[in-house]
Amino acid sequence: MAAARPTRYTSTSRFSQRHDQPAAIHLSKPRACADDRSHLSEPIEWLTDNGSCYTARDTRAFARDIGLIPRTTPVSSPPSNGMAEAFVRTLKRDYVRVNPRPDARTVIEQLPGWFAHYNDVHPHRALRYRSPREFIAKTCEALSGL
User: Fold this and answer.
1) Measured between alpha carbons, how far is 11 from 86 in angstroms, rounded to an integer?
2) Which sign does the torsion angle of CA 16, 22, 25, 26 carry?
3) E strands within the chain?
4) 8 Å CB contact between 119 and 112
5) 48: three-class secondary structure by DSSP
6) How far is CA 20 from CA 51, 103, 114, in A?
7) CA–CA dist 40, 107 (Å, integer)
8) What is the mean pLDDT of the chain?
9) How far is Cα 42 from Cα 68, in angstroms, rounded to an integer?
10) pLDDT tens-digit profile of 43-66?
11) How confident is the model at residue 116 (pLDDT cuts 50, 70, 90)?
């Protein structure tokens, strides 16, 4: 997801196991990991659409309890939804499908590393094949020279 300001997002989606692996993690429903109440080391903004399951008081409270900052896309904003969907597609293609995921806990434990790689190393076409961190550094460097 190419964002206009530096931030960390996670998005709504579902990481499904292959049919021969029973475990699944549903990021679109935080209750799926309710048994693991461990807090994240730093807050992550959780970007969703305005569906009732994402705006429900219990869902938003649970997200805050585990260290997520619930955010919703603007109503009737296809570009915002498209960015969130592109992020999920990339996460599934470049991280979920190529890493071991025998159970939900393993996936949860791998998420911080995946997000760090996505932000620090992964090339983004919208950013001229730079990582978000590289793009931000170059932009700041260019602006400081003005």
Assistant:
1) 10
2) positive
3) 9-11, 44-48, 68-72
4) no
5) strand
6) 31, 12, 24
7) 14
8) 75
9) 9
10) 678 888 888 888 899 999 998 888
11) very high
